[in-house]
Amino acid sequence: MVNNENNHKKHKMIQYANGKSLEEANGTVEIPKGKGFWKTLFAYSGPGALVAVGYMDPGNWSTSITGGQNFQYLLMSVILLSSLIAMLLQYMAAKLGIVSQMDLAQAIRARTSKALGIVLWILTELAIMATDIAEVIGAAIALYLLFDIPLIIAVFITVFDVLLLLLLTKVGFRKIEAIVVCLIFVILFVFVYQVALSNPDWGGVFKGLIPTSETFAKHPVVHDMSPLNGALGIIGATVMPHNLYLHSAISQTRKFDRNNEDDIANAVRFTAWDSNIQLGLAFVVNSLLLIMGVAVFKSGAVEDPSFFGLYQALSDTSVMSNGLLAAAARTGILSTLFAVALLASGQNSTITGTLTGQVIMEGFIHLRMPLWARRLITRLLSVIPVLICVALTSGKSTIEEHEALNNLMNNSQVFLAFALPFSMLPLVIMTGSKVEMGERFKNRLWINILGWISVISLTYLNMIGLPQNLEPFFPADKVGLAHTVAYILIVLIIALLIWTLVELHLGNKRFAAEQAKKHNK
């Protein structure tokens, strides 16, 4: 009778889940004992790559290249600052998972009410779907450019990446990490090759790494973009909330003695090394994208920053900055490599987006469904706005169709501004708490200070950018209405943040009381 009940549970599409984070992969990767630094680091390497994917996904590409086209190397410092903040936040997320043995969603849910858990789950799901829209568009465009597949058909083909996911779930977590690393190196190779041919001004590159007052200035405005707009675009495309949930879960895939503080400290140390190395690679990729905008093309030559426009520009000898690039562009190698990198980026994001979806669903509302089913549902939901966009522009010119898709991809990132504070604030609070992390593993004072500065700065920048981000959703003569709606949303976000912080504070006090009671016994 018991076996029949267990079999019935296994075959249910949606199940109750309140166990370990990513239970099927949790603690499955063996760590060698007594080995040297490099062998141990290799064993811990992998989760950082899955996280780094989110920092070099299709949403980053146009912002970095356009920033280079419009302002030369001025915004290099923004990419550097974003990467350093990412390293800090991802370190905290991984440490939370390793020390507390809960992912960020589980930790928030354990300290808050069911009602707030559902609200935060919906908000985070919308953010994941927003990033999924960018992946759908990027992958569909790559298929169109590489194989001349009509866009609508290409969009439907992206749904079948669920079959890839089914295959990956059978090969083991370590092999998934290896596949992601290989795809990252494909992307890296493409842009290193193109930038190497361009012979950029390396003095200007390194000078751009130092922020100045001009970096966040509202003037000059070039092609409807100011340095401030460009900086906000890069920041918005770089730090994404789903990466924090993901890292807090996949940092638990390594097998070590979780009751031994020294082993835990070792895991935190090597996980931080892995994360920082991989995010360093993401910084290089994003820097190469901006350098492409400056050095590969003649200044101001790229009028269409969409993927279509960039692909065409890379095969147009007249816009190349030197003869070597023009010769390569004539062969079609530059544009083809760009489309290959775009496809690789989309597939990488597919893997990590699905894992994150499972983490937040189990963590916030304690429900689980098979990875392939979850992927199919979220991908179909993400495909709908893309299909509507393609259908509405099917009778218009090719340029208008391309612009509409590019605008949809950029506008889909608006939800990230909503969701970001609700992952960052709890993360800094919980990792800075002795109650949650213990005396040994709570954030040091300087990490706490940098964490709060990062959280407040990113939240502020996302909020001040919200009115401008909402403008494309309204007619040209209704800009005032767009700003009014944005300010109402900002007030609602602040109210929801206060609700979250109050519940986290009360939950922390409750947890402290429970610990004290256990200790007294």
TrEMBL record:
Compartments where found: Membrane
Membrane-spanning intervals of the chain: 71-94, 115-145, 151-169, 176-196, 228-246, 279-297, 324-344, 376-394, 414-433, 445-464, 484-502
Keywords attached to this entry: Membrane, Transmembrane, Transmembrane helix, Transport
Pfam families associated with the record: Nramp (PF01566)
Gene Ontology annotations of biological process type: iron ion transmembrane transport
GO (cellular component) term, any one: plasma membrane
Entry annotated with the keyword S-adenosyl-L-methionine: no
Origin: domain of life: Bacteria
Chief site of localization: membrane
Cited NCBIfam families: nramp, Nramp_1, PRK00701.1
Protein's UniProt name: Manganese transport protein
Lineage: Bacteria, Bacillati, Bacillota, Bacilli, Lactobacillales
